[in-house]
Amino acid sequence: MLPSTTLPPPPPPVPEQGAWGDRAGLLEERARALGTLARWYMAPHRALLLWLSAMVFALGWVLAVSGFQFLVTGELVEHILGVMFLGLSLGATIPSSLGVATGIRRDVVVGGRLRDWARLERDPRTLPLWRVRGGGLLWLLPSVLLSSLGLALGASTVSAELSPEGFGSLIGIAVVFAAAGGLGLAKAIDYYRLVSRELTPEPGLEPGPVQGPEGRQDRA
């Protein structure tokens, strides 16, 4: 999880009169903070880590179900295999679940700071400065696919006549896929909601100047 000291500071409090003394400077600071926070929040490698963690956890779940199945057979060799499978299961599920939990805590901090800065003002012309190219789609499309796969697998497993081991393995995989896809989908929707809000400036406010990539101010 990122230390809070490395994040952009929280936005300044809203003045009582509802008007900013230096709105242009505020918009520039806001664009820089949103750019940093959005890159952390929607980083493509974070999506890949989530999908990898889901796959590893699903593998650990299958190993755990197989291990328990070996243990209940009552034979010595099966007991040994069951203990081995359960050990491998712990080695897969514990690190992957800790990684996902750490990522969720990180997203809560970074996402909360991102929304605080986004709510401070609105300026559609600052959007290119903090938009993460390809990040939204990379989070959205695989999440929809993974959650749909999990729901379809779960529905087919419930309606099929399977052995206890097969049912436990498949339903666990379905739950893991649906949960991982739901996490990614919620994150993508939250980001696109902020983008949509940025494109609808508050009525009665004139957009301020935007700091360009080379330090110059771009005006409408």
Shape: elongated
Instruction: Tell me the fraction of residues in β-strands, as a range.
Output: under 5%
Read across the widest sheet, the strand sequence of neighbours is: 1-2
SS elements, strand count? 2
What are the SSEs and their pairings?
Blueprint: H1 23-41, H2 44-71, H3 76-120, H4 127-130, H5 135-159, H6 164-198, E1 210-211, E2 217-218
Antiparallel strand pairs: 1-2
Structural overview:
The chain has helices at 23-41, 44-71, 76-120, 127-130, 135-159, 164-198; strands at residues 210-211, 217-218. With 220 residues, the protein is mainly α. A two-stranded antiparallel ribbon has the order 1-2. The radius of gyration is 23 Å and the shape is elongated.
What attributes does this structure have?
mainly alpha, 220 residues, 2 strands, 6 helices, 71% helix, disordered C terminus, two-stranded antiparallel sheet, elongated
Task: Sum this structure up briefly.
The chain is mainly α.
